[in-house]
Automatic annotation (TrEMBL), chain A:
Subcellular location per the Swiss-Prot or TrEMBL entry: Cell membrane
Gene this protein is translated from: secD
Functional description taken from the UniProt entry: Part of the Sec protein translocase complex. Interacts with the SecYEG preprotein conducting channel. SecDF uses the proton motive force (PMF) to complete protein translocation after the ATP-dependent function of SecA.
Main location class: membrane
InterPro entries reported for this sequence: SecD (IPR005791), SecD-TM (IPR027398), SecD/SecF_arch_bac (IPR022813), SecD/SecF_CS (IPR022646), SecD_1st (IPR048631), SecD_SecF_C (IPR048634), SecD_SecF_C_bact (IPR055344), SecDF_P1_head (IPR054384)
Protein known as: Protein translocase subunit SecD
Lineage of the organism: Bacteria, Pseudomonadati, Pseudomonadota, Betaproteobacteria, Rhodocyclales
Topology of this chain in the membrane: Multi-pass membrane protein
UniProt source species: Thauera chlorobenzoica
Keywords for this protein: Cell inner membrane, Cell membrane, Membrane, Protein transport, Translocation, Transmembrane, Transmembrane helix, Transport
TrEMBL record, chain B:
Topological relation to the membrane, as annotated: Multi-pass membrane protein
Gene Ontology cellular component list: plasma membrane
SUPFAM superfamilies membership: Multidrug efflux transporter AcrB transmembrane domain
Organism, scientific name: Thauera chlorobenzoica
Protein's UniProt name: Protein-export membrane protein SecF
């Protein structure tokens, strides 16, 4: 009766083996590495090609590496020691950035897990340490949504003026009042015409008629909830993209940039100590400029030969071909109110739709009328350096402020271009509302503290259990160790961030996990006390304790989940480990310990007694105890 | 080895009234201190800036205070943290400050003070709105835990048990908070996490006792309610003490080795564990009795499947 079927034993064995494999990477430590990521907003890093190039650069320099790993944003090469790492960094730098003044890639020193490649290939990675354990900076940024909304409404006001003029609707003034745009009319017929005109051109505005006591008739336009939502989403998305591009310059090992809530962004830069520089980078603004391309025959060859014609600058397009751009700025980014990826109405190719405000539309119409067939370049200016985002050919005069750029673009490219254009124009301003900096020495200390508390607590519990319950105590201790193993494996697999409170939760979980085993052992003693045979005592003890264990763990889990839902930062780190720990402890306390007990006692026909410590039996009063 | 050799059931319920009065007094005291002294909330909740620096040699506090006051932070609190070489500087949020540059200004000021330059260990800056949100989120989490556990217990046992367990455990939580208010220990996010963990933990304790109560009601028909409760508590007392002993070993290890950061977390847990035992045994059970639990609520008309004892 105390035997598990073979499949159950094998299953438990497999789970433990899995735990062991996924825990392994945590013991290897880290080795030096070099990381390559894109330095330019307009340059997409192609992991496969970059991996090839790193490999050949290292071969050429005769440097041995211990593996090259690629992920979408960066490629990293691992080395045996720091000497190789430094030499490799120089070699890669030379291969990737022939012109040090204008680097296309960021080559940075980094650390990678030293676990063997077969582990990495099955995604067995070491636990992801939080900032309080490895040092670094954490920012919480809030996007200024009201500001973005005001900007958008101001642009709308200008658009409506243009629209009324184009449709020759007479109005008595258009102005932004708070979060609405108010249009005044003299008579109802004109107002109706105005309303129709607006409804025909845009779906983003909600219109309401309001009549004052004065003889003014008003039309009040507000952004629809959907339009506001879209605006918010875009503002956040675009700020995240911009931040990504900028943080790449810092060459941070594993930056975390995530949206939190409706209008916040979390930025975590492990290992960064220079907070001031990080803040400068986060707070920098980019601008957008539209200029004409100089396509005078021969000019470009002249420029490539080294003498750039007066009044022009030489840039490189995204495709890599050179481009000569006039210095005179036609339009700046603040005239651009929106940039969205989409599709060409006729050809169905991917396209980018730009919207200009009224003044911008007028300038644009004049310029395009004069330069049909010529190219214009849209440049993103950051840190005083420009990059060409796109350089389309002007096919016809464009009025009305709606511009479409299409041709030779994939959907992904259209998305990128739209994001870049928005990043240079209407990035919503951000404010730092939370900052945490942890020095590297403190991180190392925190790991030591957390590790020591867990270790000594664990050893003390094991010593006590073995003394009190003898063999059963030893089995409980093995189950507890299995619990720790599985917990670490789960955390490594999920790549959940481990923080100091997380380590505390681990220790606490171990302390609480022993509860299940104590319940079981006490039950078995009680059964023996009541005169059950050893085999029956084991079976009854496990069965009866199960209900109690389930109940008490579920209540604890409820508390853990509440923490997970409402917690942030340290509390969440605590809650993740707490919840996972409850699950692993149920598995190990019940199944693993039962399996071991079955191996020890289950095969024997007759047992004289169980090694579970003294079972004291009250000599008298068995009558009261039925 | 065996600690508990109890011949007869200990008559806990006989003294129920005494325990309840003691509880009530402690509880009222805790509420009183919470109301009069309030919690010493950490930067995370109040908003503000906290800078921890470490010097090679122990610095003089007074020059540091004066230098900070001179550079525009007259309300800076400077104190030693852990050792004489580590300083902790707290700055409340003010409207007229450029919050995003506080940490840099403070570091620059500290470097200008005569003596050796400090090493930055950590900075925490929390904007005012974030602090408010954290406080409400914490309260929400507490509410959700209480509701979730009550619903679960009501389904699994009976409403009387749910109510008693929650009252008993809220009493633990309030008493922990009372301690923190009385001693003015810093109430930080990890402490909040500890308090919520205690809530789950101490309910767990009550559940173990209640489980026994239910079982005893079903098995022993001759006993009256107080006797059943006594029997349930007596038969689980050894497990209660051993389990809490193990958990306390862990927490003690955190108190000793965990350093400053985990100190208050472990402290909150210690108080929670001690009161958790007390409340599950001596608060929750009498409450169930007062609320009038009886055998009829557990003996269902349909026959439960009895386990065969071989």
């Amino acid at each position: 009766m105390n035997r598990y079927p073979l499949w159950k034993n094998i299953l438990i064995g497999l789970v433990l083996l899995w735990g062991l494999i996924y825990t392994l990477p945590n013991f290897y430590g880290e080795v030096p590495a070099v990381q390559v990521s894109s330095a330019k907003a307009t340059l997409k890093l192609d992991p496969v090609a970059v991996t090839e190039r790193i490999g050949s650069a290292l071969r050429a320099a005769g440097i041995d590496h211990t593996g090259i790993f690629a992920d979408p944003g960066s490629v990293r090469a691992r080395f045996a020691d720091t000497e190789f790492q430094l030499r490799a960094k120089d070699a890669i730098e030379r291969a990737f950035n022939p012109d040090p003044a204008d680097p296309s890639y960021v080559v940075a020193l980094n650390l990678l897990s030293a676990s063997p490649n077969w582990l990495t290939s099955i995604h067995a990675l070491p636990m992801y340490l939080g900032l309080d354990l490895r040092g670094g900076v954490h920012f919480l940024l809030e996007v200024d949504m009201p500001g973005a909304l005001t900007k958008r409404l101001d642009a709308t006001t200008g658009d409506l003026r243009t629209l009324m003029r184009d449709k020759s609707v007479r109005h008595a003034g258009i102005s932004r009042e708070g979060s609405t745009v108010v249009i005044r009319f003299r008579d109802a017929a004109q107002r109706e015409a105005g309303r129709r005109a607006i409804q025909d051109t845009t779906a983003d505005l909600q219109l309401a008629e309001r009549d004052d006591a004065t003889d003014d008739l008003k039309l009040v336009a507000t952004l629809t909830p959907q339009a506001q939502q879209t605006m918010r989403d875009f503002a956040i998305k675009q700020n995240i993209t911009t931040l990504h591009n900028r943080i790449n310059e810092l060459g941070v090992a594993e930056p975390v940039i995530q949206q939190q809530g409706a209008e916040r962004i979390v930025v975590q830069l492990p290992g960064v100590q220079d907070v001031a520089k990080a803040k400068d980078i986060l707070g920098r603004t980019a601008t957008l400029e539209v200029r004409m391309v100089d396509d005078t025959p021969g000019a470009i060859e002249q420029a490539l030969a080294g003498s750039i014609p007066f009044g022009t600058e030489l840039y490189t397009e995204r495709g890599g071909s050179p481009l000569l751009v006039k210095k005179q700025v036609v339009l700046t980014g603040d005239r651009l109110t929106d940039a969205q990826p989409g599709f060409d109405g006729q050809t169905n190719e991917p396209a980018v739709h730009l919207t200009l405000d009224a003044a911008g539309a007028r300038i644009f119409r004049d310029v395009t009328r004069e330069s049909v067939g010529k190219r214009m370049a849209i440049l993103l200016i950051e840190k005083g350096k420009g990059e060409v985002v796109t350089a389309p050919v002007i096919r016809s005069e464009i009025g009305g402020g709606r511009v479409q750029i299409s041709g030779r673009m994939t959907t992904a490219e259209a998305n990128d271009v739209a994001l870049l254009l928005r990043a240079g124009s209407l990035a919503a301003p951000m404010e730092i509302i939370e900052e945490r900096t942890v020095g590297p020495s403190l991180g190392a200390e925190n790991i030591a503290k957390g590790f020591n508390s867990t270790l000594w607590g664990f050893l003390a519990i094991v010593a006590f259990m073995c003394a009190y319950y003898l063999l059963f105590g030893l089995v409980s201790s093995v189950a507890l160790a299995a619990n720790l193993l599985l917990l670490v494996a789960l955390l490594s697999l999920l790549q959940a961030t481990l923080t100091l409170p997380g380590i505390a939760a681990m220790a606490l979980t171990l302390g609480m996990a022993i509860d299940a085993n104590v319940l079981i052992n006490e039950r078995i003693r009680e059964e023996l006390r009541n005169g059950a045979s050893p085999q029956a005592a084991i079976a009854a003890g496990y069965d009866r304790a199960f209900d109690t264990i389930l109940d008490s763990n579920i209540t604890t889990l409820i508390a853990g989940i509440a923490l997970l839902v409402f917690g942030s930062g340290p509390v969440r780190g605590f809650a993740v480990v707490h919840c996972l720990g409850i699950l692993t402890s149920m598995f190990s306390a019940i199944l693993v310990s039962r399996m071991l007990i079955n191996f020890i006692y289950g095969r024997r026909r007759k047992i004289d007694g169980l090694s579970i410590g003294t079972v004291w039996k009250p000599a008298a009063d068995t009558a009261a105890k039925r | 080895m065996e600690f508990f050799r109890i011949k007869k059931d200990i008559p806990f319920m006989h003294h129920a009234l005494v325990f309840n009065v003691i509880s009530l007094i402690t509880f009222v005291l805790a509420v009183f201190f919470l109301a009069t002294r309030g919690l010493h909330l950490s930067v995370e909740f109040t908003g503000g800036t906290l800078v921890e620096v470490s010097y090679a040699e122990a610095p003089q506090l007074e020059p540091v205070r004066q230098a900070l006051a001179a550079s525009g932070y007259p309300d800076a609190q400077v104190q030693n943290f852990g050792s004489a070489r580590d300083l902790l500087i707290r700055l409340p949020n003010r409207d007229d400050l450029d919050t995003s540059r506080v940490s840099e200004t403070v570091m620059a000021t500290l470097k200008s003070v005569a003596g050796n330059a400090p090493e930055l260990r950590r900075v925490e800056f929390v904007g005012p709105q974030v602090g408010k949100e954290l406080a409400t989120d914490g309260a929400m989490a507490l509410l959700l835990v209480v509701l979730g556990i009550m619903i679960y217990l009501a389904l699994r046992f009976e409403w009387r048990f749910a109510v008693s367990a929650i009252i008993a455990n809220m009493h633990d939580v309030i008493i922990i908070l009372g301690f923190f208010a009385f001693f003015q220990w810093e109430f930080s996010l990890p402490v909040l996490a500890a308090v919520l963990a205690v809530l789950g933990y101490s309910v767990n304790e009550s559940v173990v006792v209640f489980d026994r109560v239910r079982e005893t009601f079903r098995k022993k028909r001759a006993m009256d309610t107080p006797a059943v409760l006594d029997h349930a508590i007596t038969s689980t007392i050894s497990r209660t003490v051993i389990t809490h002993g193990s958990t306390q070993i862990m927490v003690l290890s955190m108190l000793i080795f965990g350093g400053e950061t985990l100190y208050y977390f472990a402290l909150a847990l210690t108080i929670g564990i001690l009161f958790g035992i007390y409340s599950s045994v001596l608060v929750a059970s009498p409450l169930v009795m007062w609320l009038g639990v009886s055998r009829e609520q557990f003996v269902k008309p349909k026959k439960e499947k009895e386990e065969a004892v071989v």
